[in-house]
Amino acid sequence: MVWQRPDGRQPYQLRPVGFHTGFTHFAPGSVLTKCGDTQVLCTVSFSEGVPKFLAGTGKGWLTSEYRMLPAATQQRQERELLKLSGRTQEIQRLIGRSLRAAIDFEVLGERTLTVDADVLQADAGTRTAAITGGFVALANAISQLMRRGVIKRSPLCGQIAAVSVGLLQEEPYLDLNYVEDVAATVDLNVVMNQHLGIIEIQGTGEEGSFSRTQLNQLLDFAEKGIQQLLIAQREAIADWEEVFVGVRS
Amino acid sequence: MVWQRPDGRQPYQLRPVGFHTGFTHFAPGSVLTKCGDTQVLCTVSFSEGVPKFLAGTGKGWLTSEYRMLPAATQQRQERELLKLSGRTQEIQRLIGRSLRAAIDFEVLGERTLTVDADVLQADAGTRTAAITGGFVALANAISQLMRRGVIKRSPLCGQIAAVSVGLLQEEPYLDLNYVEDVAATVDLNVVMNQHLGIIEIQGTGEEGSFSRTQLNQLLDFAEKGIQQLLIAQREAIADWEEVFVGVRS
Amino acid sequence: MVWQRPDGRQPYQLRPVGFHTGFTHFAPGSVLTKCGDTQVLCTVSFSEGVPKFLAGTGKGWLTSEYRMLPAATQQRQERELLKLSGRTQEIQRLIGRSLRAAIDFEVLGERTLTVDADVLQADAGTRTAAITGGFVALANAISQLMRRGVIKRSPLCGQIAAVSVGLLQEEPYLDLNYVEDVAATVDLNVVMNQHLGIIEIQGTGEEGSFSRTQLNQLLDFAEKGIQQLLIAQREAIADWEEVFVGVRS
Amino acid sequence: MVWQRPDGRQPYQLRPVGFHTGFTHFAPGSVLTKCGDTQVLCTVSFSEGVPKFLAGTGKGWLTSEYRMLPAATQQRQERELLKLSGRTQEIQRLIGRSLRAAIDFEVLGERTLTVDADVLQADAGTRTAAITGGFVALANAISQLMRRGVIKRSPLCGQIAAVSVGLLQEEPYLDLNYVEDVAATVDLNVVMNQHLGIIEIQGTGEEGSFSRTQLNQLLDFAEKGIQQLLIAQREAIADWEEVFVGVRS
Amino acid sequence: MVWQRPDGRQPYQLRPVGFHTGFTHFAPGSVLTKCGDTQVLCTVSFSEGVPKFLAGTGKGWLTSEYRMLPAATQQRQERELLKLSGRTQEIQRLIGRSLRAAIDFEVLGERTLTVDADVLQADAGTRTAAITGGFVALANAISQLMRRGVIKRSPLCGQIAAVSVGLLQEEPYLDLNYVEDVAATVDLNVVMNQHLGIIEIQGTGEEGSFSRTQLNQLLDFAEKGIQQLLIAQREAIADWEEVFVGVRS
Amino acid sequence: MVWQRPDGRQPYQLRPVGFHTGFTHFAPGSVLTKCGDTQVLCTVSFSEGVPKFLAGTGKGWLTSEYRMLPAATQQRQERELLKLSGRTQEIQRLIGRSLRAAIDFEVLGERTLTVDADVLQADAGTRTAAITGGFVALANAISQLMRRGVIKRSPLCGQIAAVSVGLLQEEPYLDLNYVEDVAATVDLNVVMNQHLGIIEIQGTGEEGSFSRTQLNQLLDFAEKGIQQLLIAQREAIADWEEVFVGVRS
């Protein structure tokens, strides 16, 4: 039996992607990111100074927070108040690590970029949408900070995008939505850069294991998806040529 | 010296108001509310059951949560994690009390409506925007719940809107923005119903006191503003005639 | 039907008021305040220094904490441990704002006054008793600090008192006790200064709205009550003439 | 060199003790206890039911909470909010254990007595004052509960009092005040019953050790003090003969 | 330049592994696990009942907690008290997911197995040691529970082991110690079952990306290490043949 | 009826004691302490600097943390996460106070020693095992710090050991195990120094009181036990003669 995708997509096909840039305007970067029905508001804030462990090194930092609005899911979910769930912490750590791979922190100097990813609507793939959209917000923020003269040179040395892939009935599928995510036996999130170098790979087969052959099939699909996302990102960043440096200093 | 409004409004003039209904679609009510540059996403969720103190009474409940996204303000603000600030708690209690005045809880029966007001962008007046937009989301939610047959009769027995007024150089002004809010010596939030009956009044003159004459001038302006908001709300609620009952059972 | 007050008072009559000054003696101000059966221990402490946001401005600060002892109510109430309830936070913010209107912070200089209001017995009106009694403790504290030479000039530039009024069967009543507070459809707390200028007004009609005419009737009663409280306060402050300055510098 | 007591007392002499019974009247027992300048408000509340570990055993429970008001000490102390200090927890556990020795829980049945000890003024010896005064409040509470018919038989089977003793310049002193408490090298708290049986003994010599001979001298002084406290307690309990049963069932 | 391993190991060589079974004896499974200088005490406890989301399904559950003792690292680390770090939560979720793949929860029935992994000494690889040693403790616990008659059939349907691999100077190395872990540009944790099916893969290249070729080299090394660990585990489990079932029911 | 000890010991007989020194090796002192089936891992860490209240005094500090692993008891116990229980706080305060009596803080200078006592297995007497074993770890840590030249002179001026005694059927017994601890009516913990001077005594008779005669019998047994523990400690400390100074400077 072969899995029929609820929205009729091909196995290797992404959901429609959209980046609504400048969605709010107090933060230097603000992008309402849509991947199908998943909507994540990604904002990037800037502040002078770095956390203690970097003070005096001349290097900057990027950190991330991830949260879901209570009404983002089918059933309203309680806000996380006294403590963050393990899931939330894992995701915001992943977003931070992934987007740090885009920045040359020596060029940035002792400043901190904060990426807030707030999920307004959740139809699976929120963490990868947060990374992909967060990158657009990051580029826009750097662009604005340069125009305002706050930073002199662009520290944007890598392009980062992310996508999920999964096994359904032992076959690979790209960019799962919620129904598919629940049905999948294996779920793999992949973060890559502009050269399709792997930045992060997280795969789990709680409902079953997967072979190395299947892993490589999943990665083939992930590569395809990420190539398209990289193009969509560049189209959404007005001054891509100026803001993207492409190599670490 | 007379106060010059930064956006050139008349003293008795509201900022442009907008209600983007159906902004997300998992919650029965979802309205992105704009009052000038202030943007609040108001969603209304529904659940069977009530808090303990009402169990067995046959009456329903409405509760509210209010939060700001970190990048909603000029300077990024930390999320409230371990505990809510006094300000946040005051505001969400105010929103809850105000919107409860719109509902006949005997008609609702033992169900709970939860109004989430998440501020995406804050240019003052977020609590009054949350109440005014929250009412639209509430009406839309009730409308959808009736269409889906979840509730049989509409419990919407009151129309509620809110606005801020303040004294600047001893003169009253309607619907202050952030710059005005900071400059005002007296700040008054007023919540009224469709008959301009007062539901809630909160005035504070930390930087100076105000006379009863000034209080009445402020209330004149508040009435004007609320009359316009009541009209705008009704225009944003497609099936107003069906959903609004207007009297308690 | 007309409301019969349980203690036989006239509608415009206060409960007996008492200020037991010097109730404890480590804090410079300490007043056990009684309004009928409501008992609030108000103490005022003094410390050098101010919160960060005022450091270097030359201005002082006043802050307040409010708490109920567990056995203050008919049913023992749990202490608020991990977090303060919204009600507690609202009240302590109100007390702080109200009593700050009594102080010229430039005269005080970079020092902090802390008003602790601990309710030993609660028969309604605890927040207004805390403000009215807190003012007496504040004046006594300033007086003692001047005698000890800790501060040179009195920063006491305003006299502050507070009272509650409410609507019962659509008629106004002054200084509600617990039974009345529960029965009232509208509850209004009013804080005024020595000129009967309004410092704070908070009215809520969760069980029903109120007209502007009713609001003005309630304020008439509040004014009457506050005039008597202002007199009682001055009688309880031994050296009123020396400690009260009456205008901001 | 011999220690001169600041208040001129003999080494074996208690501070003046006072029990102001019925200080508040919502809780069945309420005693403002004074030991010199130490003032502790002890209230005893009553509720049906017991903690889980006792449910179904037919036995009741007694628990205690201890807290200091912020202005109870020379320097204002922060309230314990997020967590209780080790000191506070130790003291409230000690009060609970000590007063449980006064109650026959089979006679009480599945009910809970809660002793709240709130220190209004602290001049050392607050934990022993809380126990000694808490016992008076406990007896008064039981007496009232019997008069109201809530409990049929008195469960008061033991009389409990407590005192502190200490070594100053290697000599024993009874009932230390704050100055003495700071100067003492050894501090011993003793809780005894009506037969001078030891219920609890806690001695610490952080600044120096003490011999068994000294321990016995300290216990001689503690016995003397407790004998007087037992008499004072009985005088403060109006219906001592009726309420005190004296033996476990 | 080629990386010289500080302990002289070959690139594909594990550190010495040891399982001290029965280290404590109140829990049914207790194994002090050593991987080089890394020491993790893994205990497995058993309780009737399951979390709410499984109640009534007839299925059991396995959960895990991971913590480091403060003195486990070169510099003493604060205990995590108010909240768990993201790292801790990630790790304990990983351990739980991995070891759940070893259990047939329908055979277990509505019971919960809790795996506690407490790191006594940390020289990198603590999470993989916790999984590998946790599996041994799990098998021992099941064995004891069967001997005691608490469970009738063994639910142990999979064998699980884990290891870390990393890139140092672009070359793969197996089972990194602390010095190597810090120096690595890419770090990959791999969890596999007895068929070398992948249960979990987590790779991160914060300091640099990695190619798919490198990923496959790392997986080759991981497979080699896991094969040896699977053998060592079986040797440490006395009654392996009885306790291991090998297929889901 | 006379109590029969479950392990056949004489009333005045200790359980077998063992000190496994150097159990872990990152902390300067690390001792796995066994008293019968009770196992406590005691580690001592060292850091420059002292808490605020000692800064600038030239004096050092010693603090302690005590915790049980979840599987240390017959039934798995939840870890204490949001707050420490009163029991845990009491115990860690006791360990800290007791071991501070071993150190001359003027010789130590402004440094902090942290004693972590983690109970791996609990069969009663964990707090006294933590003190007795903590002392050995402390001596070993000082010895190592002197060899490494971190401290010049030994600050070890006292030898500290602790034991529990209790009344079972009105007779005294030394070093109770869990079964005895539960059955005892009176439980007494005693901490003494090398001269058998009392450092700390804590006795509680919740299930019954005890006479002064019984107290002295219990202390006789405690002295016997502590004398043996002092010998065992000295045997476990390799360079006892060098590290122990014996008098405060």
From TrEMBL, chains A, B, C, D, E, F:
Keywords: Nucleotidyltransferase, RNA-binding, rRNA processing, Transferase, tRNA processing, tRNA-binding. InterPro entries: ExoRNase_PH_dom1, ExoRNase_PH_dom2, ExoRNase_PH_dom2_sf, PNPase/RNase_PH_dom_sf, Ribosomal_Su5_D2-typ_SF, RNase_PH, RNase_PH_bac-type, RNase_PH_CS. It is an enzyme of class 2 (transferase). Phosphate binds at residues 87, 125-127. Pfam families: RNase_PH (PF01138), RNase_PH_C (PF03725). It catalyses: tRNA(n+1) + phosphate = tRNA(n) + a ribonucleoside 5'-diphosphate. Residues 13-141, 159-225 form the Exoribonuclease phosphorolytic domain. GO terms for molecular function: 3'-5'-RNA exonuclease activity; tRNA binding; tRNA nucleotidyltransferase activity. The keyword DNA-binding does not apply. One of its GO terms (biological process) is rRNA 3'-end processing. It comes from the Bacteria. Its EC number is 2.7.7.56. Phosphorolytic 3'-5' exoribonuclease that plays an important role in tRNA 3'-end maturation. Removes nucleotide residues following the 3'-CCA terminus of tRNAs; can also add nucleotides to the ends of RNA molecules by using nucleoside diphosphates as substrates, but this may not be physiologically important. Probably plays a role in initiation of 16S rRNA degradation (leading to ribosome degradation) during starvation. Belongs to the RNase PH family. Homohexameric ring arranged as a trimer of dimers. This is Ribonuclease PH. It comes from Dendronalium phyllosphericum CENA369. The gene is rph.
